[in-house]
UniProtKB/TrEMBL annotation:
One of its GO terms (biological process) is endoplasmic reticulum to cytosol auxin transport. Involved in cellular auxin homeostasis by regulating auxin metabolism. Regulates intracellular auxin accumulation at the endoplasmic reticulum and thus auxin availability for nuclear auxin signaling. This is Protein PIN-LIKES 3-like isoform X1. It is found in: Endoplasmic reticulum membrane. Belongs to the auxin efflux carrier (TC 2.A.69.2) family. The keyword Glycoprotein does not apply.
Length: 349
């Protein structure tokens, strides 16, 4: 059964993080090119890889407050997988567009400033060229008027002889334009498509019985996917560690901006998360399931999502700054996530 409150909880983490990130921007005044990056790292947490690593380790522990290890492992993996799928959808729809809009604004402002400098440097030459081009434009306009008059005198028969484009060709052309749009390809990234396919298989009973389970006819698909997933988690973690090395080279990221991001991710968001999850539990919106409540609380205390680095590389805005931010947030994650996880387990047990 899909817990309906988890999508709401993840949406709240993104919205709260965005508001807090905007406050950091107003207080610390960072460079324009990393404003979208700051909002992104404050709003999007690592909702997939870390829960999948943390939950099995807690379930296998002898002093786990979540009951039977096998049941805890099965339920915990399902909750963590749902968190990963929903997190990927929110990142590639919400954060992706925030960083895209921010980078495009910086690009436009940069072009405007360069155009202004060029015009000021040209001076009188520009005005003289405008005068010469103006006389040429007048001549061209007269010629265009004559051409338009001639076109209006064309007969109906000639205009009706235009070739009509088939409707199927038009539809193919429109679909090609949509699929080639970089924004469309960004939103429907492999992670998002994988989440959508997983939801479809899980919701449709016929597909689920065909692929999921030891007696399913296509059980080999589940086994193959599980093997790839088991290998992907440590591989992605190693890649993340390699990317953090870029942060050692340093960048022009303001010191107080980094402090603000760390404060948002490891202090403010977890406190808000406790208030929201406990309030929802008191209202009966969240079931009395310690493991489920722990997952909801953990979503507020995670470091920034690794996908933000990929998005920064796509738009070429704040790549080195992103490495520095990731370095410090993940360096402190071992302490912050451990402390908050211990407190959350005590809180829900």
């Amino acid at each position: 059964m899909i817990r309906w409150f988890m999508p709401v909880n993840i949406l709240v983490t993104f919205l709260l993080g965005s508001v807090l990130g905007w406050i950091i921007i107003k207080i610390t005044r960072p460079p324009k090119n990393i404003e979208g990056l700051i909002v992104g790292v404050c709003s999007a947490g690592n909702l997939g890889n870390l829960p999948i690593i943390i939950i099995p380790a807690i379930c296998k522990d002898k002093g786990s407050p979540f009951g039977d290890p096998d049941v805890c492992y099965q339920d915990g993996i399902s909750y963590a997988s749902l968190s990963m799928a929903l997190g990927a959808i929110f990142i590639w729809t919400y954060v992706y567009n925030i960083m895209r809009i921010s980078s495009s604004k910086v690009y436009i402002e940069g072009n405007k400033s360069s155009d202004t400098i060029t015009l000021e440097a040209s001076g009188d030459d520009v005005s003289e060229s405008f005068i010469e081009e103006g006389s040429e434009t007048i001549t061209q306009v007269k010629g265009n008027v004559d051409d338009d008059a001639y076109i209006l005198l064309l007969s109906k028969n000639q205009s009706e002889q235009k070739v009509k484009v088939p409707m199927l060709h038009k539809m193919k052309h429109q679909c090609g334009m949509v699929l080639s749009n970089p924004n469309f390809r960004g939103i429907f990234s492999p992670a998002t498509l994988g989440a959508i396919v997983g939801f479809i298989i899980g919701v449709v009973p016929q597909l689920r019985s065909l692929m999921i389970g030891s007696n399913a006819p296509l059980h080999v698909i589940e086994d193959s996917t599980s093997m790839l997933g088991d290998a992907a988690i440590p591989t992605i973690t190693l890649i993340m560690g390699a990317n953090l090395l870029k942060g050692l080279k340093g960048a022009s990221t303001p010191f107080w901006t980094i402090i603000g991001i760390i404060g948002v991710r490891y202090i403010l968001l977890p406190i808000f998360g406790i208030l929201i999850v406990k309030g929802a539990t008191q209202l009966g919106l969240v079931p009395v399931d310690p493991l489920y409540q722990f997952i909801l609380l953990l979503q507020y205390a995670l470091p920034p999502a690794m996908s933000i680095g990929t998005i920064a590389q796509l738009f070429g805005a704040g790549e080195s700054e992103c490495s520095v931010i990731m370095l410090w947030t993940y360096a402190l994650a071992s302490i912050a996530v451990t402390l908050w996880s211990t407190y959350f387990m005590w809180l829900v047990s």
